[in-house]
Amino acid sequence: MNSYMDLKMEEFDKLVEIMERVRKDCPWDEKQDHRSLMQYLLEETYEVIESIEQKDDDHLKEELGDLIIQILFHSIIAEERERFNLKDVLTSISEKLIRRHPHVFRSLEISGERDVLENWEKIKLNEGKKSALEGVPKTLPALLKASRIQSKASRVGFDWKEYKDVFKKVEEEILELKDAAEKNNNREKIEEELGDLLFSVVNLSRFLKINPEDALRKTINTFIKRFLIIEKEINSQGKELTDVSLEEMDKIWEKAKDM
To answer: Percentage of the chain with pLDDT > 90?
Structure first.
């Protein structure tokens, strides 16, 4: 009977063989390059996130497979370009995991999660990083990027002491935005103050241990669900949305909260 590790390697080797065959014999796949595949890598990542949020294990299994295919595809293309291959990818990440976890693979003693994160940043700086803020992709969604930037700054000691201080900062930014909107017709100034407010709210979410991107996405989904209920109710009356007042729509919205 094969061990679990033997089974994993057998299935992985089979998948690599299939991908290499597809790359060679499929007219669409053979034309792809790193750039043309970017959109699919992003789509598959978001589909993985969606399946996690929906707690759909069957869908998650499928989407994780699609994501693995993207990784294999990029590795195969890189090997064709004689830059690196899949073995190099796996070796590199294995070495990084060992190097960044001295408390697991060596004798470093830590007292908790905070020590792990702070030590992680020290190791990255020793690896040649020029700034503690390096490593945050420029293309990340703005809310998530703000959270990652703040988290990195926090790991080297640049942070508020407690969440109450962040609440005060949020309140301060609200007043500054209100003042700019009421007294200033300068669009750039208003945009700046709005950005400061959003950045502070993201900071607050970090202190409350809430992912701002997840929180906003859930709120968007809730809004869509309730708005669809409004549409359905109004359409059942033989009317269009433009035929009813905001007050009427708001009444249906309130009812939708209980559904």
So the answer is: 67
Q: Which residue has the higher pLDDT, 130 or 160?
A: 160
More reliable by pLDDT, 11 or 36: 36
CA–CA separation, 136 and 102 (whole Å): 23
Whether residue 117 is contained in a domain is answered as no
> What are residue 77's phi and psi, to 5 degrees?
-65, -40
Q: Is residue 190 part of a domain?
A: yes
- What is the pLDDT confidence band of residue 7, given thresholds at 50, 70 and 90? low
Angle subtended at Cα 30 by Cα 28 and Cα 33, rounded to the nearest 5 degrees: 100
Helix (H) or strand (E) holding 57: helix 57-80
Asked whether residue 28 is assigned to any structural domain, the reply reads yes
201 and 221 both lie in a single domain: no
- Identify the pLDDT of residue 4: 62
Query: Domain for residue 189, yes or no?
Result: yes
Residue 53 has pLDDT above 90, yes or no: no
Q: CB of 212 within 8 A of CB of 201?
A: yes
Domain count for the chain: 3
Same domain, 47 and 88: yes
Residue 135 near residue 156, CB atoms below 8 Å:
no
26 in the same domain as 71: yes
Long-range contacts of 93-99 (CB under 8 A, 24+ apart): 99/123, 99/127
Residue 241 lies in domain: 214-256
Residue entry with tokens 């020029």? 130
pTM of the model: 0.68
